[in-house]
Recover the amino acids of this structure.
């Protein structure tokens, strides 16, 4: 279908690169878009799908290579699905710690029964910048927002995300365990099937 030995990952997030490369194993080598450009495209879409496609096209254009993008985020039930596609910018670009602090504040005094949340991941793969048929795969991971951060692994909102099937936070899972069950793992399973990898 395409030369997958040279796939560029359209992400400036080191945590994503690590997880996606671990999931792909030796089948495909991901090159970071950071090798080609430090400029991050503006994520102007209204959906995870639109932003994933936008990032993939931008990376393919800059690198001249097929590109994989990951647009992801945390949708909190009590907040009507926020921060959602704005998860990275929730605290106005001040970073993971500020995002987490803002989320805890927004859910202050909200009982466990109303703290449900989903991690969402959309992967978009384009063969070239103007590809008329991007491959799209999505994954959801259901959990609950904790009252305080816990755990050192992962990145982003992981310390606040309670994983009911394991009784730990997502940041308390080993990287290998997270990569078996996360939203990103589910999306990647679908992508592997679509590409006939495995
Ligand atoms: O757009 P790129 O360059 O890929 O990097 P980014 O970090 O800006 O990525 P997004 O725009 O997709 O925003 C994703 C947000 O959701 C968070 N997030 C996504 N997946 C996560 C995960 O597995 N664990 C914790 N937080 C996650 C992440 O920390 C960001 O705040
Ligand atoms: Mg982003």
């Amino acid at each position: 279908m395409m030369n997958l030995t040279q796939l560029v990952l359209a992400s400036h997030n080191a945590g994503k690169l690590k997880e996606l490369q671990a999931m792909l194993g030796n089948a495909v080598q991901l090159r970071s878009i950071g090798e080609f450009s430090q400029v991050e495209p503006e994520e102007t879409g209204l959906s995870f799908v639109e932003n994933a496609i936008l990032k993939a096209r931008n990376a393919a254009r800059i690198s001249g290579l097929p590109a994989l993008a990951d647009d992801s985020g945390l949708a909190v039930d009590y907040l009507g699905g926020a921060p959602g596609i704005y998860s990275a910018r929730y605290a106005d670009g001040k970073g993971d710690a500020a995002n987490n602090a803002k989320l805890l504040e927004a859910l202050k005094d909200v009982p466990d029964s109303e703290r449900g949340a989903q991690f969402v991941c959309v992967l978009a793969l384009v063969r070239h910048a103007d590809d008329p048929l991007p491959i799209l795969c999505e994954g959801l991971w259901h959990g609950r927002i904790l009252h305080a951060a816990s755990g050192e692994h992962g990145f982003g909102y992981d310390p606040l995300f309670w994983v009911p099937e394991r009784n730990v936070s997502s940041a308390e899972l080993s990287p290998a365990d997270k990569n078996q069950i996360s939203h990103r793992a589910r999306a990647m399973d679908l992508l592997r099937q679509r590409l006939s990898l495995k």
Notes: Residues 88 and 94 are 9 Å apart (CA to CA). Strands lie at 7-9, 30-32, 67-76, 116-126, 135-145, 161-163, 168-169. The pocket of inosine 5'-triphosphate (ligand 1) is lined by residues 11-13, 16, 40, 43, 55, 70-74, 87-88, 96, 99, 119, 154-158, 182, 184 (CB under 6 Å). The longest helix spans residues 48-63.
